[in-house]
Amino acid sequence: MILIDNKYNCCGCTACASICSHMAIKMNPDSLGFLYPQVNSELCVGCGLCDKVCQFYEGYKRYNNYETPMAYQFRLSHDEQLKRSQSGGAFFAIADKFIANGGVVYGAAFTKNWRVTHQKANSSHTLSALRMSKYVQSDLRGSFTQVKEDLRKGTKVLFSGTACQVAGLKSYLPNCLHDNLFCIDIICHGVPSPQIWEDYLAYLQKLRNSKIVKACFRDKRFGWHGARESFLFENGKEEFRRTSNYLYFSGFSMRESCSVCYYTNFKRVGDITVGDQWGIPKDSTYEDGKGLSLILINSEKGKYLFECAKLKAESITLQDCIQPQLEQPSTLHSAHLRFVRDYETKGFLYVAKKYGNLGWRYKMVYVIRALTDLLRKIVQR
Ligand SMILES: Cc1cc2nc3c(=O)[nH]c(=O)nc-3n(C[C@H](O)[C@H](O)[C@H](O)COP(=O)(O)OP(=O)(O)OC[C@H]3O[C@@H](n4cnc5c(N)ncnc54)[C@H](O)[C@@H]3O)c2cc1C
Ligand code: SF4
Ligand code: SF4
Ligand code: SF4
């Protein structure tokens, strides 16, 4: 039976819990809200399926995926639609066509309480909830069995998520149900803590004395490269903050397993991979801050999806799209352990002030940086 005595060995995909027909495994949150399997030894019969299904290791299965993907860059032509996608809108273009052809799509969306979970869309309207990046690990509990039910009924399913989630789902499903399954994985920097996200929102709502009615992790009104999050409150006020506020980019609150991620390469598990196409030449017309998607076609099924969507995409080389998350895992901050200990004993506000950008230390650094930049400009004149 599966035993996680080292957090670096589990990405929280839920495949082990989903495959256990004896209901012996529960996915339980740790102090940061990340889910880990816990086995009830009284219910376990020792069949070993949970160990076999786990794909979080170097030799993960790739089925019939190409050795090397074909790369494209793409942007939705409609400006309003483009604003509603984090990159160039590749996910929406493919998923919308998939639904129009009678399929259903799974992806990460907010709940009413701003938690991030995987949800199903079967219309253009419900698909909109799956759009845009949510920088929190999405809770997959119950999703794999729901996908299995859909496939059993003969429904075509497009599942989207991080590469480790896609690898877990494919391994969980029996081969006989793979024909109608299509997968999109996203290029992934690593997933931040769901519990810190929840604490951060509670802090903001208390501060503004109003409920949040809209949240966005990277608001495109500040450009594609911009790192500004936005919150709309019930009282009509809107607030913009630096995206690193809840400690994501600093690497403090990332899941441990992301720092040893096996999927940060071109050996993709999805049929299609989507990400940001950061490798745009400076003089390109795409360098206008509106966003550009990178698309990797990884299998015959991926090619089929791409052709069905009739995307006007430009072929590029793999060299053109290389980025750190296709070369090596992100690193956890060296003070990660201290951060977690402080969070467990002293709470969100304490760590947000000490390690994040809510306190005076961050404000001082910010002011000093701004002054240094100003001085440099004056000297250069
Ligand atoms: C945590 C995270 C880190 C990322 N890091 C990088 C990176 O380092 N480099 C890079 O090139 N791209 C990264 N991306 C992907 C990128 O930001 C875009 O999501 C992607 O290019 C798709 O954009 P789009 O315009 O095609 O569609 P969008 O509509 O913006 O994409 C939505 C898609 O993202 C999925 N998604 C959103 N949030 C989550 C989540 N929490 N968990 C699982 N799936 C999610 C949805 O299911 C859907 O498939 C990251 C995304 C996330 C969520
Ligand atoms: S990576 Fe997935 S299958 Fe493996 S132990 Fe963690 S939750 Fe279970
Ligand atoms: S060994 Fe079998 S019964 Fe025991 S937890 Fe794993 S899947 Fe369940
Ligand atoms: S970095 Fe790797 S392990 Fe972490 S969520 Fe992304 S794909 Fe999964």
From TrEMBL:
**Annotated 4Fe-4S ferredoxin-type domain residues:** 1-30, 35-65
Domain of life (superkingdom): Bacteria
One Pfam annotation, family name?
FrhB_FdhB_C
InterPro entries linked to this entry: 4Fe4S_Fe-S-bd, FrhB_FdhB_C, Polyferredoxin-like_ET
Name the PROSITE patterns on file: 4FE4S_FER_2 (PS51379)
Q: What name is this protein filed under?
A: 4Fe-4S ferredoxin-type domain-containing protein
Source species of the chain? Bacteroides muris
